[in-house]
Amino acid sequence: MKALTPTALLCSLAILGLPHRSARAAEIFLGADSNGVITITDSPSAVPGFRAHTPIARPQVPPSAPRGYKASMDRYDELIVGAGQRYGVPPALVKAVCLAESAMNPLAVSHAGAQGLMQLMPGTAGDLDVSDPFDPAQSIDGGARYLARQVRSFGNVSLALAAYNAGPATVQAAGGIPSITETQLYVEKVLGFYRFFSERHPVGGSRDSAS
Question: How many whole angstroms separate alpha carbon 172 and alpha carbon 140?
Answer without folding.
Answer: 25
